[in-house]
Inverse folding.
Protein backbone atom coordinates (compact mmCIF):
# COMPACT_ATOMS: atom_id res chain seq x y z
CA UNK A 1 0.00 0.00 0.00
CA UNK A 2 1.10 3.58 -0.75
CA UNK A 3 1.40 5.73 2.38
CA UNK A 4 2.50 9.11 3.68
CA UNK A 5 2.44 11.17 6.89
CA UNK A 6 0.78 14.58 6.85
CA UNK A 7 -0.81 17.53 8.65
CA UNK A 8 -4.31 18.51 7.50
CA UNK A 9 -5.19 22.18 7.14
CA UNK A 10 -8.34 23.66 8.70
CA UNK A 11 -11.50 23.66 6.58
CA UNK A 12 -11.78 27.47 6.61
CA UNK A 13 -8.53 27.78 4.65
CA UNK A 14 -9.41 25.24 1.98
CA UNK A 15 -11.70 27.75 0.22
CA UNK A 16 -8.89 30.32 0.17
CA UNK A 17 -6.58 27.72 -1.37
CA UNK A 18 -9.21 27.00 -4.05
CA UNK A 19 -9.38 30.74 -4.83
CA UNK A 20 -5.59 30.80 -5.30
CA UNK A 21 -5.84 27.79 -7.60
CA UNK A 22 -8.43 29.59 -9.76
CA UNK A 23 -6.00 32.50 -10.22
CA UNK A 24 -3.18 30.19 -11.26
CA UNK A 25 -5.36 28.01 -13.51
CA UNK A 26 -5.81 31.00 -15.86
CA UNK A 27 -2.06 31.14 -16.46
CA UNK A 28 -1.48 27.85 -18.25
CA UNK A 29 -2.12 24.14 -18.46
CA UNK A 30 -2.04 23.30 -14.74
CA UNK A 31 -3.55 20.25 -13.04
CA UNK A 32 -4.84 21.48 -9.69
CA UNK A 33 -4.87 19.30 -6.58
CA UNK A 34 -8.16 18.55 -4.83
CA UNK A 35 -6.82 17.58 -1.39
CA UNK A 36 -4.91 19.95 0.86
CA UNK A 37 -2.39 18.64 3.36
CA UNK A 38 1.26 19.13 4.28
CA UNK A 39 3.20 15.95 3.64
CA UNK A 40 5.74 15.38 6.41
CA UNK A 41 7.13 12.16 4.95
CA UNK A 42 6.24 10.15 1.87
CA UNK A 43 6.72 6.44 2.58
CA UNK A 44 5.78 5.07 -0.84
CA UNK A 45 4.70 1.46 -1.32
CA UNK A 46 5.01 -0.52 1.91
CA UNK A 47 3.76 -3.89 3.16
CA UNK A 48 1.15 -4.48 5.89
CA UNK A 49 3.97 -5.49 8.26
CA UNK A 50 5.90 -2.27 7.52
CA UNK A 51 2.72 -0.23 8.00
CA UNK A 52 2.19 -1.78 11.44
CA UNK A 53 5.81 -1.01 12.41
CA UNK A 54 5.37 2.60 11.19
CA UNK A 55 2.22 2.92 13.30
CA UNK A 56 4.09 1.65 16.38
CA UNK A 57 7.04 3.99 15.83
CA UNK A 58 4.87 7.07 15.22
CA UNK A 59 3.03 6.45 18.52
CA UNK A 60 6.35 7.04 20.31
CA UNK A 61 6.71 10.63 19.05
CA UNK A 62 6.22 13.24 21.78
CA UNK A 63 5.81 16.90 20.91
CA UNK A 64 3.71 19.81 22.11
CA UNK A 65 0.99 21.37 19.96
CA UNK A 66 2.21 24.41 18.05
CA UNK A 67 0.97 27.31 15.97
CA UNK A 68 1.65 27.30 12.24
CA UNK A 69 0.71 29.58 9.39
CA UNK A 70 0.43 29.28 5.65
CA UNK A 71 3.14 31.45 4.20
CA UNK A 72 4.22 32.33 0.72
CA UNK A 73 3.67 30.85 -2.69
CA UNK A 74 6.54 29.09 -4.42
CA UNK A 75 7.49 26.79 -7.25
CA UNK A 76 9.55 23.65 -7.72
CA UNK A 77 12.19 23.38 -8.95
CA UNK A 78 12.37 27.21 -9.16
CA UNK A 79 10.63 30.32 -10.55
CA UNK A 80 12.36 30.01 -13.93
CA UNK A 81 11.38 26.39 -14.52
CA UNK A 82 7.99 25.89 -12.89
CA UNK A 83 6.67 22.34 -12.55
CA UNK A 84 4.84 22.54 -9.20
CA UNK A 85 3.13 25.52 -7.55
CA UNK A 86 2.88 25.35 -3.77
CA UNK A 87 2.02 27.23 -0.55
CA UNK A 88 4.55 27.05 2.28
CA UNK A 89 4.04 26.43 6.00
CA UNK A 90 5.77 28.29 8.82
CA UNK A 91 6.01 27.01 12.38
CA UNK A 92 7.65 24.08 14.14
CA UNK A 93 6.81 21.76 11.25
CA UNK A 94 10.49 21.10 10.51
CA UNK A 95 10.95 19.94 14.11
CA UNK A 96 8.00 17.53 13.81
CA UNK A 97 9.28 16.25 10.46
CA UNK A 98 12.75 15.64 11.94
CA UNK A 99 11.23 13.68 14.85
CA UNK A 100 9.33 11.54 12.33
CA UNK A 101 12.47 11.07 10.23
CA UNK A 102 14.46 10.03 13.32
CA UNK A 103 11.79 7.64 14.54
CA UNK A 104 11.62 5.92 11.14
CA UNK A 105 15.34 6.06 10.29
CA UNK A 106 15.72 2.26 10.49
CA UNK A 107 13.02 1.80 7.84
CA UNK A 108 13.29 4.81 5.51
CA UNK A 109 16.05 7.17 4.38
CA UNK A 110 16.16 10.68 5.85
CA UNK A 111 14.52 13.42 3.78
CA UNK A 112 17.32 15.98 3.48
CA UNK A 113 15.36 18.19 1.07
CA UNK A 114 12.18 18.58 3.15
CA UNK A 115 10.13 21.72 2.41
CA UNK A 116 6.77 22.01 4.18
CA UNK A 117 4.23 22.81 1.47
CA UNK A 118 0.78 22.18 0.02
CA UNK A 119 0.86 21.43 -3.68
CA UNK A 120 -1.59 23.73 -5.49
CA UNK A 121 -0.98 22.31 -8.93
CA UNK A 122 1.32 20.55 -11.37
CA UNK A 123 2.33 22.71 -14.31
CA UNK A 124 2.38 21.28 -17.81
CA UNK A 125 2.81 24.63 -19.60
CA UNK A 126 2.64 28.38 -18.85
CA UNK A 127 1.04 30.97 -21.17
CA UNK A 128 2.77 34.05 -19.72
CA UNK A 129 5.89 33.45 -17.60
CA UNK A 130 6.10 37.07 -16.40
CA UNK A 131 2.53 37.07 -15.05
CA UNK A 132 3.19 33.68 -13.46
CA UNK A 133 6.29 35.03 -11.69
CA UNK A 134 4.28 38.04 -10.45
CA UNK A 135 1.58 35.71 -9.04
CA UNK A 136 4.27 33.62 -7.31
CA UNK A 137 5.50 36.79 -5.58
CA UNK A 138 2.08 38.04 -4.46
CA UNK A 139 1.45 38.52 -0.75
CA UNK A 140 -0.87 36.12 1.02
CA UNK A 141 -3.18 36.99 3.87
CA UNK A 142 -2.00 35.46 7.13
CA UNK A 143 -3.67 32.12 7.86
CA UNK A 144 -2.75 30.76 11.31
CA UNK A 145 -3.86 27.53 12.94
CA UNK A 146 -2.89 25.20 15.76
CA UNK A 147 -1.25 21.92 14.80
CA UNK A 148 -2.73 19.40 17.25
CA UNK A 149 -2.11 16.19 15.33
CA UNK A 150 -0.59 14.48 12.33
CA UNK A 151 -1.88 11.51 10.36
CA UNK A 152 -0.72 8.34 8.66
CA UNK A 153 -2.58 8.28 5.34
CA UNK A 154 -3.06 5.57 2.73
CA UNK A 155 -3.17 6.81 -0.86
CA UNK A 156 -4.83 4.71 -3.56
CA UNK A 157 -4.27 5.96 -7.08
CA UNK A 158 -7.30 6.03 -9.38
CA UNK A 159 -8.09 7.55 -12.81
CA UNK A 160 -10.00 10.35 -11.00
CA UNK A 161 -7.02 11.12 -8.77
CA UNK A 162 -5.72 9.73 -5.48
CA UNK A 163 -8.15 8.45 -2.84
CA UNK A 164 -6.97 9.16 0.72
CA UNK A 165 -7.81 7.13 3.80
CA UNK A 166 -6.62 8.08 7.30
CA UNK A 167 -5.05 5.00 8.91
CA UNK A 168 -4.17 6.57 12.27
CA UNK A 169 -4.17 9.98 13.95
CA UNK A 170 -1.31 10.97 16.30
CA UNK A 171 -2.20 13.69 18.81
CA UNK A 172 0.38 16.19 19.99
CA UNK A 173 0.55 17.05 23.71
Amino acid sequence: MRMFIAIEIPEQYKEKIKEMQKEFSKLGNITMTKEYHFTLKFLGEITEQQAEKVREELRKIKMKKFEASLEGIGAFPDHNYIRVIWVGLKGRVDELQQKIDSQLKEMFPRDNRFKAHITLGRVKSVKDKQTMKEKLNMKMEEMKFEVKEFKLIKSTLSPEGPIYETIEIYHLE
Observations:
- Residues 19 and 25 are 10 Å apart (CA to CA).
- The chain has a mean pLDDT of 93.
